[in-house]
Design goal:
This protein is an alpha/beta fold. The chain is built from seven helices and six strands. Helix 2 runs parallel beside helix 3. One of its GO terms (molecular function) is glycosyltransferase activity.
Amino acid sequence: MPTWFCSREWFFHVGKFDEGGKGVPEDLLFFYKHIQKGGEVFRVNHCLLLYRYHPQAATHSVLEGTIWNHRVRFLEDRVLSSWTSFTIWNAGKQGKKLYRSLSPANRKKVAAFCDVDEKKITKGFYAYEESEERPKPKIPICHFRDATPPFIICVKLDLTGGAFETNLNTLNLKEGMDYYHFN
């Protein structure tokens, strides 16, 4: 669990926590306001605080879908708003979930999905069946080497024995410019 801290002065500048009640991810919303106001993040690679688990913790009242929706809106506002097109790296469950969660305007910006799974690549496209559009949108699926940046990467790190990281490194891309992780 990442822990972050800031000065009291910055805390008041950002605007305190959203005390909207049970189910509000106030720490995530504060963090996003911190970034939007120009705040920076620095990594400290040692334990600063130990949390104790207890079943009554407020964190259990925040639904996974609530956090997902806030993350998608932040991605759309901070990244996708300045891109004319992009590729989603993962034609599987997470990539498709991201696609379906995007606003209609940002779904239209998705040029393709890319993957390494030959079965998905051979199929050639993802049909968005839940769409109201006629004909239903069909988004191409290609191998990652044939895909065009920028990428939104929906692949978890450290799950492929380094294979994904190696594939990403072969493309010589710059994080924060050519791709963003969304996992």
